[in-house]
Amino acid sequence: PEVVNGRTHKATVVDLSPWVEYEFRVVASNSVGIGEPSRPSALLKTKAAVPVVAPTNVSGGGGSRSELVVTWEPVPEELQNGEGFGYIIMFRPLGSTTWTKAVVASVEANKYVYRNESITPLSPFEVKVGVYNDEGEGTLSSISIVYSGEDEPQIAPAGASALSISAAEVEVSWQPIAWNRHTGRVLGYEVR
């Protein structure tokens, strides 16, 4: 705090956060030292402002076929800067020039799911998430690449063969399915 001249009876406090409650105390000082602080003032809330902090850890992926799942870290209440806070989700297929915009009007939200039958499995999307409140739209995050949901594998393993090892054991082998956008990631095989 800046020391105010002894003949001055008011001061302007700067660099406060918007839409936050503050209380103030005044302390008198002289060459001998500092006295006791005054009783606290009544709580005073600063005016609202457009939010300036974008969500962090924007990512996503997973979900079902024909879904794009976007996730982010929610913005803490002290950085929301006003009432009517929510999130703006912007996304487009990688290489496209047109953004699709969605709004999530929930302070606690940390996820958005876009469903569209025309989405190809494991398609890359450019995604950014922003914030807004009653004062207006704020900052957008930097762009993240998020992949749409996978489909179940469309190809069966080939070259299945079985070899008898003993009276109680059989070894089964097959050729692995190569990864591509249409088969998705093969997490395991089921032997029947």
If you had to describe this structure to a student in words, what would you say it looks like?
There is one protein chain. The chain has 192 residues and is mostly beta strands. Among the domains are: 56-148, Immunoglobulin-like; 153-191, no CATH class. Helices cover 0% and strands 38% of the residues. It contains no helices and 14 strands. The protein has strands at 21-22, 27-29, 34-37, 44-45, 56-60, 67-73, 86-93, 100-104, 111-115, 124-133, 136-140, 144-147, 158-164, 170-175. Residues 1-49, 54-151 form the Fibronectin type-III domain. Keywords: Disulfide bond. This is CNTN6 protein. GO terms for molecular function: cell-cell adhesion mediator activity.
Instruction: Please name the fourth-level CATH homologous superfamily of the domain at 56-148.
Output: Immunoglobulins
Main β-sheet: number of strands, strand sense, barrel status? 5 strands, antiparallel
Radius of gyration, in angstroms, nearest whole number? 29 Å
CATH architectural arrangement of the domain at 56-148: Sandwich
Quick one: overall form?
elongated
The SS-based structural class is mainly beta
Helix and strand succession? EEEEEEEEEEEEEE
Mean pLDDT: 92
The fraction of residues in strands falls at 35-45%
* Distinct helical segment count: 0
Strand tally: 14
Output the CATH class name of the domain at 56-148: Mainly Beta
Q: Quote the distance from N terminus to C terminus.
A: 75 Å
- CATH fold-level assignment of the domain at 56-148: Immunoglobulin-like
- List low-pLDDT spans: none
Q: In which range does the helix fraction lie?
A: under 10%
